[in-house]
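Please go through this chain and its backbone structure tokens and walk me through the local backbone shapes. Keep your notes short.
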Amino acid sequence: MKRRRVATGQTANGKSLIVADESIEPLTVALAPGLECFPIWGSDRAVDLPNDGSKPSTSSWFPPERGFRFTILTIPPDGEGAPPADIQAALAEAAEKLPGMIDAMDAELPHMHTTNTVDFVVVLSGKLWLEVDDGKEVELSQGDSVIQNGTRHAWHNRSSVPCQIVSATIGARRS
């Protein structure tokens, strides 16, 4: 399913205008059948205002310090779809389409990951389970939100239907 992205900007004399109104195809990878990623907007640095509304470039899936990402994700039910036949090709595809995502994953517990970000997540539809280090889980439903402060965590969809979330991710400094 496509998503629509509308962006605004300002002219040199300060007049506001719509600079983009476009459809976005989901990013999909063989490594995670059913996962749809819609990178709506992001920047690798803080944005100065006013600006013309041009889409900033980004270098990786997760933002660096002071960068940000705004993303919609469709997360399929756990275990949906068969694993890829060629795991090496699937890993290479994921590294290309979602740069830095594989690096954030825990090698021993594949769903667990840690990023140097503060994430604001809202469940748009479906259900999602958030797991943290001590094994504690929280079930989230439509309208629920999570503020993720750089902690190691995993997402699970233990329902029978896809879950859609929106995420605003801000790059942070880990000391």
Remarks:
- The longest helix spans residues 87-97.
